[in-house]
Amino acid sequence: MPAKGSSIPKPNASNASSERPMENEEWKQRPPYLIQPPEEFGPVKWQAKCQCGQVTYKISREKPLKAKYCHCRGCQVMHGAPFQWAAIFHKSDLTFDKGAHGLSFYSSAHSTREYEVPTKVSCSFCRTPIMDEGRNVCLIFPEAIVAGDSDEERQKWREAFAPDCHIFYDKRCIEILDGKTKWSGMDEESDLVDDYVLAPWNVTRAVQSRGINRMLPSLMSSSSHWDLSLETFICGDLRDEISSAQIGFDAYSSSWAATVNGLAAAVTQITDNEMSNLLSQGGVELADRYAPLWFFGQAQNQPPCYPTWAFGGSPTSPDTYDDAHKTPAAPQCDYPNVGCKCRNPGVGIGNQGPAFPIYFTYKRCSDTEVRVVYNLFYEKDGAEVIGIETGHDYDWERVIIIHSRDANNMWAPSRALLSAHSGYHDLAWGDIQNTLTTDEIIAGDAKNPNGVQNNDHPKVYVAWSKHAHFDDRNTGWNDPISQSTDNAFRSDDWWYYVDKSYYILSDDTTAAGKALGSANWGDATSNPPSVHASVCSAP
């Protein structure tokens, strides 16, 4: 309390955030404090303001460089919340409408209220946190974005600022079961932390106590009935059980839906006659019926090489099968620049990747087994580490899906072979960690749900550096040695489901297969026709 007779101190509404005059104010002439006219700043994608409206700013970038939840003690205290939601932008992506006027600064690193990066920026009147400014980027808080009132506007806002991961999760106040990567400290620099997982007895007890097991047949009779019934269960008595587990309600709802759907999921079967027809029609429809959804990720802000055409093709033009059009190999660059001078995804993370081809083959190995091979081509793999090349010119990788006929003459995928470091990960179909239905593929929702097994389309994660295939993500290891092991970094920054028009039959009876089989691919010897020749004995 102020002493009797003294005036109540007023909030600092000037741009001088320290009690001492600032000797060097050149920073006011740099982004984001430099006031820019609209024609210089460019199109505005987002607008934001503090609680009282004194501070307003604009953003010219549609999506942040990265978004994350931070659970560190400092963020919990500063924001008065269990965690901080933050989005990273270039400083030039922001402009304050009033420049530095109305802003206060606090540098926790130097315990000063003078402007000195890194600094925490807030409104000098209502004290709303505005951003954390670093030396190279700034970190804003999406809650301040004026997102609009309609469901469509708010959905666009949520998707644009969706976090990639949790950091300092060891300091968490609550469990958040959202399937996102969780780091014990800084991302890419600390240990991974497992999600809280419902114990089997909890799942069983919840199902039995609500009678869901008795109602599954009727719930699954129509998708609309299923959605309504599930919402009724989740929004009713289960809320108390969920809260007691300290799981966010929305996250639990998504996880519970995946759990119950997983119990009912079953890969689509086809009849013996259907299989015969699919084989006689050239194999494309069969390949598409159970095709993977492919995921690619970047590490250390370095994009990967991305699949491409082997003989000069592109999304708009086919391969030309002669040596003059053979795609050149890409050179090795210093690690971690694994994607230098080769095709990259070319779009921001969190988006569908561009088109690429699948050089596929198929073979009936016996009366009860058919195998389909999905081959991907790259201009290289690996990188140079301390003068040593860890990769080679060109790279061929593949997934083999094995279809089996049961005693009732019904066909379905039984196993998947995922190529990895000159061998395979051999997975029973029901053991593949993440699968999608055909309806989910058509809808284009690549990232959700996770953890549902035994559906028609497996999620296949391509390793960042050397392109080995996995059925799960692993973002805990980005050192060069790990990239040649099963610890290889793989993530889901981009995804693509290959359209049937980009399937190229490549056995040795086709022009593509003959060209691929006769070309010199260096150490990448597992070209499609060579794999096809022995596919029935793999792995």
TrEMBL record:
* Pfam families for the chain: GFA (PF04828)
Q: Which residues form the CENP-V/GFA domain?
A: 46-158
Sample GO molecular function, one term: metal ion binding
Q: Where is the composition biased (Basic and acidic residues)?
A: 20-29
Query: In its keyword annotation, does this UniProt entry include Zinc?
Result: yes
* Keyword match Calcium: no
Keywords linked to the UniProt accession: Lyase, Metal-binding, Zinc
Extract the ranges annotated as region (Disordered): 1-34
Name the Gene3D superfamilies for this protein.
glutathione-dependent formaldehyde- activating enzyme (gfa) (3.90.1590.10)
Supply the InterPro entries for this chain: CENP-V/GFA, Mss4-like_sf
Which PANTHER family does its entry note? CENP-V_GFA DOMAIN-CONTAINING PROTEIN-RELATED, GFA DOMAIN-CONTAINING PROTEIN
> What is the similarity comment for this entry?
Belongs to the Gfa family.
Name of this protein: CENP-V/GFA domain-containing protein
- Origin organism is Aspergillus lentulus
